[in-house]
Task: structure prediction
Amino acid sequence: MTGRAEEAKERKPRADAQRNRESLLKAAKAAFTRRGAEINLDDLAKEAGVGVGTLYRHFPTRDALIEAVYRAGVKELADMAAQLSAARPPIEALREWMKIFVDYIATKHLIAPALNSMVGGPSQLYAESGTQIKTAIESLVARAVASGDIRPDLDPFDLLRALVGVANVAASPDWEASAKRLVDILVAGSRPVE
Amino acid sequence: MTGRAEEAKERKPRADAQRNRESLLKAAKAAFTRRGAEINLDDLAKEAGVGVGTLYRHFPTRDALIEAVYRAGVKELADMAAQLSAARPPIEALREWMKIFVDYIATKHLIAPALNSMVGGPSQLYAESGTQIKTAIESLVARAVASGDIRPDLDPFDLLRALVGVANVAASPDWEASAKRLVDILVAGSRPVE
DNA sequence: CTAATATACGGAGGATTCCTCCGTTTACAA
DNA sequence: TTGTAAACGGAGGAATCCTCCGTATATTAG
Result:
């Protein structure tokens, strides 16, 4: 018979759909970073080079779009950690990753309240992303400890908290540059005492 | 002549205007805390028991309203510090104030991105409020140091950063309770070594 | 390669929300 | 009490959101 595996006949997603989705995410991330969560969605569609209909098909609500950008950021961070670990000396991998994390915070901050106000979902969202990020920095720090570049008693989470805390306290235009300088200071301060 | 002091003939503000303004601020603070910065302003006016026209006269833009809520919060914090200093033992005044600060962050966080996206103004806004808050916690800590309850080498700003950082990292429903427990831990950890 | 068709596309326009404008009301000074 | 500056409310034009559907295109079977 020809009828085998009938219940699993999924097509693979169309290439143009995939392209448009990515184009929208990219434009949304840029727009959120620049102007916060209250961007004009009709304009966003235009910037991404698609129709509004396409935007709303991929992301039915503003919140869905925000969430997607957020998730993409977290995933990118996790992937980047693995990639840097493979390609760079431990201490440099950690340093680079922390700087990328600063970029991530820049978008996350602007959309955090929107995430918070989503009923039902946010805590799970945060829990999941928290785990991913925690795993990422833990493995980066572990490698740097193993190579002797970082003190063994350093809590990886302290680094995260320091970054996030500074991001909040200093809201000057110079914010990002200053946070990145702080990364260097933190890394230097985390070296073993001689 | 009767013409003296002519250039300073300001009426005092009408009582109803004052009342409506406060009613709007109160409703706005509640709404921001509950649902973030994207509240429906027509509804907000209704909740405050005034017409939309009144709302827009007092706060011409959404941002103006957000800023007013923010400023009111900062002022309240500064006043509260003085009040607690007068009424309570140093260490308890500090502890209480930090817990009130946590409440304050709960609103501030929801509107922070909106504050950030105001062009031109935000850094000045933050700078001013930063000074007020810094002064408040500095004097609270100074008193507690003088009374011997807190280590002299403690940087008051570390306490603020810790609070703000935790507020970001932990976004669970339990968030506020957890932040307040942290206050107790911070205070305990700031005591002098024996 | 061609045809068949599921899938995605764009954007017009109805629904919603924002905010201006002005005729009416009210608090204050004399 | 009366005059008047100040404030009030809310109708409705402007701006934004988002649904709906006729058209276009990628994919697959033959």
Confidence is low (pLDDT under 50) at residues 1-9, 117-123 of chain B. The domain at 14-60 of chain B is CATH 1.10.10.60 (Arc Repressor Mutant, subunit A). Chain B is about 75% helix and 0% strand.
